[in-house]
Design brief:
Length: 290
């Protein structure tokens, strides 16, 4: 019987997951289509394989930390994907994706005897590495219970929000609020600067007023220091926001604040800030002129 854990995606989140798993006594094998990411993993003491299919051959559980749902489908069902190599017992998807597509994927995997667990994480890569992220679980309770030790190693805080697809829905809804809080903080900081209030002074005011938010706690110092080294990227949050808008349209709902946020994020990407930390939305708002 196969044993062991594989992980696809060795970017910010995947690297944080490798760290969590190794600290808990697991010895995961990693793969990424980016050769530089594979090299960084090996240099950090991690083990890698040469294809996603190799993980399917060797691992009982495969964790996915890829950019989007198209990547999930490709790495699982593509020509050299995990399922081309073998049949793991379970797939745990930590990405933020399209709920309806993931629901259909769960049905296809179940027909092959594979448990599919959605496990998107609410928090930056630094928070994931520190075990501070919230895991939003979607899938069958039986399948989740069977992977309890592994899931606990990734995140101490976990909540089961429903069946397959509900993890993505819950993550998008919470990310909507988080992203708007972050954008509001950045807009307030840019506005305060125009009024002659220094960013550090403004942040102190925010943190000691009813306007305080977790976004201000987590991103405020980065904005003040203009430290935009990525913990999570503008481009990635734009992907999530586009998913929110698509889901809202499908359900006959408008999201006017999120429409405005999406426009800001698109501008940030167009201005070359897509791979910066999402705190860099401040740069876009500073550039905005009447």
């Amino acid at each position: 019987m196969k044993s062991g854990v594989g992980l696809v995606g060795l970017g910010l989140v995947g690297t944080a997951l490798i760290s969590r798993l190794r600290a808990a006594g697991f010895d995961p094998q990693g793969w990424d289509h980016d050769g530089a990411a594979l090299t960084r993993c090996r240099q950090g003491g991690g083990r890698t394989v040469d294809s996603a299919a190799a993980l399917g051959r060797e691992c009982a559980v495969v964790i996915l930390a890829v950019f989007d749902t198209a990547g999930v489908i490709d790495v699982l069902e593509g020509e050299d994907g995990i399922l081309a190599g073998g049949t793991p017992q379970a797939v745990i998807d930590c990405s933020t994706g399209d709920a309806d597509t993931l629901q259909a994927l769960a049905t296809r995997l179940a027909a092959r005897g594979i448990d599919f667990i959605e496990a998107p994480l609410s928090g930056s890569s630094a928070q994931i590495a520190a075990g501070e992220a919230l895991m939003l679980l979607g899938g069958e309770a039986r399948a989740i219970a069977a992977q309890d030790t592994l899931l606990c190693a990734i995140a101490a805080r976990r909540t089961h929000v429903g069946g397959a697809g509900m993890g993505a829905r819950a993550k998008l809804a919470t990310n909507l609020v988080l992203g708007l809080n972050r954008a509001a903080l950045a807009e307030g900081m840019a506005f305060a600067e125009s009024l002659g209030i220094a960013p550090a002074d403004f942040l102190e005011l925010i943190l000691n007023s009813p306007a305080r938010s977790e976004a201000a706690v987590q991103k405020g110092v980065q904005m003040v220091r203009e430290d935009f080294a990525p913990r999570s990227r503008v481009r990635q949050h734009l992907k999530d926001v586009e998913l929110m808008l698509a889901a809202a349209r499908a359900n006959g709902r408008r999201l006017p604040l999120t429409d405005a946020h999406a426009a800001l994020l698109r501008t940030a990407v167009d201005q070359g800030d897509g791979d910066l930390d999402n705190a860099a939305i401040l740069r876009t708002l500073r550039r905005a002129r009447a």
